[in-house]
Write a structure and sequence with these properties.
Helix content: 25-40%
Mean pLDDT: 97
Strand order of the largest sheet: 1-2-7-8-9-10-11
Number of domains: 2
CATH architecture of the largest domain: 4-Layer Sandwich
Number of strands: 23
Strand content: 15-25%
Bound molecules: MU-OXO-diiron
Number of helices: 12
Shape: elongated
Distance between the termini: 48 Å
Low-confidence stretches: none
Length: 402
């Protein structure tokens, strides 16, 4: 693929993964990119590497700009294998003068690659390294999303190289946010935040505040996945993504309910339809999310700004259906806050599913506004009336919080 000069003497030299469809449980329907950047100055610097099986793409792209052996420093902003898998090969090839990383990055590299002999240079927040005309200032972002994570800021270019933050899983030959379909871009940026960063929202808020406090002038954000945000054209830009991260970190919601359910013989599905319909008739947006046909990571994308999560499951083997259990476990890990939660479902004889879901919702600090609705086997007319009443109650609670 074509390399791109994103700023004078700053180049994208990464790799495009068109085929990846599963990123440890996150469905990457549009593939992804592993972005590496190269700065050519008195010192030549490579920022992050790529997944191991894309090593040759990286070397090829670097070679179009410089002889790889001329690279002086490798900055490791993040040690997760999608950015460091090819690091040992690149270190062998480049023989860098320095491998620059955060204190936790140093530990993580030792634990991954067991190479005490590499020329590590440990930097902390606020440290600056001169490259000649340009310089790099580092900002540690511990636990965003790994302990080692840090940002690299190039003040002379007003460029923030942000590792995973502000990324999207989007394979494209275009390199900038204003060059791709806006709906695709914003959807993938939302999905990325919901599935990777949502649980870290308080830390995201702190980093945004830190960036504001430091008065960093930013006219380009170059993440390690997807396209680069820049300020120069109409279309999504740096302020677009900073504004969205601000909104998401504050956990702002819209008047929207998700009905997330699975069904065995359509009884729970019928209840879902009746509850969802009743919520919608009260003027609240509803999304029906059947777990049999929606991937957990796509449902999470909708969870990000939803005000109410309404869960349905029949009882199977004294518990919920497996897909409901899977989604609840996934959701719990991503620590949703400030949601209204309700459970419903059909049952045959024991009927524990609704109680178990409700206990899960309470454990996630959701506002459980109803003990849950259970229907024996197939809903009768009076059961549909109860479903509609429940839907109305959910809509009323959503509107009361608006
Ligand atoms: Fe893209 Fe946390 O790695």
């Amino acid at each position: 693929m074509a390399i791109t000069e994103i700023k004078e003497n700053v180049y994208w030299v990464g790799a495009i993964d068109w085929d990846i469809r599963d990123f440890h449980g996150y469905s990457t329907k549009k593939g992804t990119t592993y972005n590496s950047y190269l700065i050519k100055d008195e010192k030549t610097v490579l920022f992050d590497t790529v997944k191991s099986n894309f090593k040759d793409d990286l070397i090829y792209h670097i070679s179009e700009i410089v002889n790889p052996e001329d690279i002086d420093y490798i900055v490791v902003n993040h040690v997760e294998m999608d950015h460091s898998g090819s690091l040992p090969d690149i270190v062998d090839l480049v023989k860098p003068e320095k491998i620059i990383c955060s204190p936790m990055g140093h530990k993580a590299m030792l634990d991954h690659f067991h190479r005490e002999d590499w020329p590590y240079e440990i930097v902390k927040s606020g440290d600056t390294i001169s490259l000649g005309k340009k310089s790099i200032t580092f900002l540690e972002t511990r636990m965003l999303h790994w302990p080692d994570s840090m940002l690299s800021y190039i003040p002379e270019d007003k460029l923030l190289i942000s590792n995973d933050a502000f990324g999207q899983h989007l394979a494209t030959t275009e390199r900038f946010a204003d060059e791709v379909d806006e709906c695709d871009l914003l959807h993938e940026a939302t999905k990325y935040y919901a599935n990777i960063l949502m649980l870290l929202s308080p830390l995201v808020g702190k980093v945004l505040a830190q960036v504001a406090e430091l008065k960093l002038e930013i006219d380009m954000i170059a993440p390690d996945h997807g396209v680069i945000w820049r300020n120069n054209l109409s279309g999504p830009d740096v302020n677009t993504i900073l504004g969205l991260y601000d909104r998401w970190s504050k956990r702002e919601t819209v008047n929207k309910a998700l009905v997330i359910y699975d069904s065995m013989w359509k009884s729970t599905a019928k209840m879902a339809k009746a509850i969802g319909g009743a919520i919608s008739r009260e003027g609240v947006t509803v999304k029906m999310m059947n777990l049999a046909v929606n991937h957990r990571s796509d449902i999470m994308t909708e969870v990000l700004e939803a005000k109410a999560l309404v869960f349905g499951s029949p009882t199977l083997n004294n518990g919920t259906l497996p897909r409901v259990a899977d989604f609840l476990a996934y959701l719990k890990g991503l620590k949703p806050k400030g949601k209204i939660g309700v459970a419903f479902g059909s049952f045959g004889w024991s009927g524990e599913a609704v109680k178990q879901i409700t206990a899960n919702l309470e454990a996630m600090d959701m506002e459980v506004i109803d003990p849950g609705l259970r229907v024996k086997f197939v809903p009768r007319e009076e059961d549909f009336t109860k479903c509609k009443e429940l839907g109305k109650k959910i809509a009323t609670a959503i509107k009361a919080e608006a």
